Amino acid sequence: MSKHETRASEALSERFEAAFIPTYGVPPVALARGEGSKVWDVDGVEYLDLIGGIAVSSLGHAHPALVEAVSRQVATLAHTSNLFLHEPEVLLAERLIGLLGVPARVFLTNSGTEANEAALKIAIKYGKANGRTYFVATENGFHGRTLGALSLTGKPAIRDQFGPFPIDVRFVPYGDADALKNAVTDECAAVFLEPTQGEAGVVPPPEGYLRAAREICDATGALLVADEIQSAIGRTGHWFAHQHDGALPDVLTLAKGLGGGMPIGACVGLGQAGTILAKGDHGSTFGGNPVSAAAALAVLDTIESEGLLEHVRTVGAQLSDGIAAIDHPLLAGVRGRGLWLAVVLTADRSARLQAAAQRAGFLVNALQPDAVRLAPPLVITSEQVASFVSALPALLDEAASDD
Ligand SMILES: *Cc1c(COP(=O)(O)O)cnc(C)c1O
Predict the structure, then answer these.
(1) Least crowded by CB within 10 Å, which of 15, 24, 198, 296?
(2) CB atoms within 10 A of CB 268
(3) Does any domain span residue 300?
(4) What is the pTM of this model?
(5) Looking at residue 51, which CATH number applies to its domain?
(6) Using CA atoms, how far apart are residues 296 and 262, in angstroms rounded to an integer?
(7) CA-CA distance, 93 to 104, in Å (whole number)?
(8) Residue 227 a catalytic site member
């Protein structure tokens, strides 16, 4: 592409760099609009969006149901604060409880990390009432960037410089049920786990790990907190990823795909865990605001009415099988479930693969040096999946070459 054609992108990138605290570096593409699973940058270049704003844009871009729900709600009542209640938040909480199918109670937040802060407050209060003094989380696990959630995050590079943290968190290798068993005693307040580790590289645990965690928590009385911020709301072809394993957590946290792009998260306490926090224990001015709640309801309704869980299983298998069938020296394989996959490489070339994909009109995410994440909108079509699968061998060639 000529310099002229990237003019708007370059100008915007320069202004971005000058205006922002550089926590993200400068992202490689400046997006202007989207429709379905397609997006266009500020210079009009079209891409197939295979990352969906990090597993967030579940209905794709500008889905009519989301547009209608958000527009109607913002034109009716945009905000109440928690001094007043409103119907969309009640409907949403009831809807989430209904999807879980067990008695539960909900706290609505604006983001994933805040959902985990609420879960942590539940766990701390439970621990203090029962002489339980520490928490267990997993190495390489990701739970968010605010200090409570960060204290549970098992990535030293993003965690350690902001410590020490006020709570005692012990980290165990992910997927190792014996290590978990050894770490969890009757002095442990809670175990925080992702049903599949997301930021670590879309890493599913061995079969039975979540059930083992459930048993360990039952035996010791520790709460099991499932961080499903990335894995839920249809991403794996089920409403919740823990449903694959048939193990219910005590506390469930949600965000990303729930609002389809509008900021909303939820901390759900199942059974008794829903009764631990009491009046005055927690709050959020914006949490569960009417517009985000209306968006989440539209997402849940549309997943149901368009049969998207089934669709995710079908096109997810098509994507995964299609990648697995490629024979290429740079391709080690594919892991993950549904429309949440990592293309695993035999060398640390993910940044090159991401760049090659972008040049060819596909947005993917170099998540780890050797792994590229795919988390497209749940509405991605079979034809769109096929277009990426057939382009991938040439992209791998490019990523493998040294020039
Ligand atoms: C993204 C994510 C978070 C943090 O969510 P934010 O909305 O970025 O605060 C926490 N846990 C998991 C598993 C995530 O994927």
Answers:
(1) 24
(2) 29
(3) yes
(4) 0.97
(5) 3.90.1150.10
(6) 8
(7) 9
(8) yes
